[in-house]
Write a structure and sequence with these properties.
The protein is of the alpha+beta class and 392 residues long. The chain has helices at 32-46, 88-94, 96-101, 104-118, 126-139, 200-213, 224-236, 248-264, 268-280, 284-292, 294-303, 307-320, 325-328, 334-359, 377-391; strands at residues 60-61, 64-65, 71-77, 80-86, 155-160, 170-174. The protein is built from 15 helices and 6 strands. Helix 10 packs across helix 11 and helix 12 crosses helix 14 (334-359).
């Protein structure tokens, strides 16, 4: 009897299994786990991190964007120094001061003033300026001190304390330090030299330590002025400010100082909502503080553009008006004074109308007659005492 192979029957291909012939050598297949493990291992080795070695890159995160930042800010206060390398675009969007001081016109005027004062040699490099002057003469054009190209331009600000004790320290734009052969020398972290294979392990563990330290919560500086500037820039980059979350009195002082700084740099629209959100977290304690010090919180609510805090403080100020007028004078605009005066007049009119209605209240006898000393002496006496209390 002839045995047909199973593959000769007319069966669908998806229903037929094909056993290996006995005369064919069996192919040894490696387990899937071994194959995937070897492939995964090769992939992992090819993408191994070299952090801490020769390919280490400088920090590019807040507060030091060493690779992409173009605005250097140096804050010096009481022997402490804080440096920032930030972005002109973000600073200009959040602050009117930085928008104006980093504009094209202002930067061109600053560059021309520096070049005319320091001379053409100290501009953008000896070789560079000589080539520009020769090119200008050949083209028949007048030569002017030209600002550095926009893509390489850097801005630098330093905190100026002024010459008098009563002056408020403020950021002043300084010329960016330029090298002798052109090109801007901006603040950068020191370059890390190439490390040998013997120190590769040390660099790896050092990189792990740096990464773990990056997750440590940011500690607020000890100096109040440095803390305010740090909070200002943190809010610009959408980081929460370092404000006291427990003591509302200390938190009020910190918020007021930050708002004054934001007002000086035309950044209240950005800082105000952050202050409002922080203070509203105190809930009932905030309302008690507003009832205690309504003029102070009225000024704070106005600067922070907080409708809730301003309205609550306005109620107490109008009710006590003009008791707190001296504290508000020269601290809020005239529009706020006019608003308080109008609300106080409305409150006085409503008070007079209410007192008149209360004074005209009377009692009647069961027959519908008004009480008098003759028909109901005790009711008349109680009514007289009530009217005397209303008048007083």
């Amino acid at each position: 009897m002839t045995h047909k192979s199973i593959s000769t029957y007319d069966l669908p291909s998806h229903m037929v299994s094909y056993p290996q012939a006995a005369d064919q050598p069996l192919t040894t297949r490696r387990p899937a786990s071994v194959t995937s493990r070897s492939t995964t291992t090769r992939r992992h080795r090819s993408s191994r991190s070299q952090t801490g070695g020769a390919s280490f890159r400088p920090q590019n995160e807040f507060p030091n964007f060493a690779q992409t930042g173009d605005v250097e800010i140096v804050i010096n206060a009481e022997g402490q120094e804080k440096r920032y390398m930030l972005h002109r675009l973000i600073l200009a969007q959040c602050s009117g001061f930085f928008e104006a001081s980093t504009s094209e016109d202002w930067s061109r005027a600053q560059a021309q003033g520096i070049a005319s004062t320091a001379g053409t040699v100290q501009g953008n490099g000896l070789g560079k300026i000589g080539e520009e002057e020769e090119y200008g003469r050949e083209a028949g054009r007048p030569t002017f001190p030209v600002a550095p190209p926009r893509d390489r331009y850097r801005w630098r600000y330093e905190l100026d304390w002024g010459n008098k004790d009563d002056e408020v320290p403020m950021l002043v734009q300084k010329p960016a330090t330029s090298s002798l052969f052109g090109g801007d020398q901006t603040y950068r972290p020191p370059a890390i030299p190439n490390k040998s294979t013997t120190t590769a392990s040390n660099g790896f563990f050092r990189s792990l330590a740096m990464q773990s330290a990056a997750h440590i919560p940011h500690q607020a500086p000890d100096n109040d002025l440095i803390r305010d500037y740090d909070n200002l820039f943190r809010v610009f980059y959408n980081y929460p400010p370092n404000l006291d979350p427990l003591n509302i009195a200390e938190s009020y002082i910190q918020c007021k100082s930050l708002l004054n700084l934001a007002d000086m740099y035309d950044a209240l629209e950005v800082i105000g909502p952050r202050i409002d959100h922080h203070l509203l977290q105190f809930q009932s304690r905030l309302w008690k503080q507003i009832a205690k010090y309504p003029p102070s919180y009225l000024k704070l609510g106005y600067l922070a553009r907080s409708r809730v805090i301003f309205s609550e403080a306005l109620i107490h100020v109008v009710g006590q008006w003009p008791a707190g007028s001296n504290q508000l004078r020269n601290h809020v605009p005239e529009a706020v004074f006019d608003l308080i005066d109008d609300k106080a007049e409305e409150l006085a009119e409503k008070q007079l109308k209410t007192e008149g209605k209360l004074f005209r209240l009377t009692l009647t006898t069961p027959r519908g007659e008004r009480v008098t000393p003759t028909n109901s002496y005790m009711d008349w006496l109680a009514l007289s005492l009530f009217r005397q209390w209303v008048v007083e």
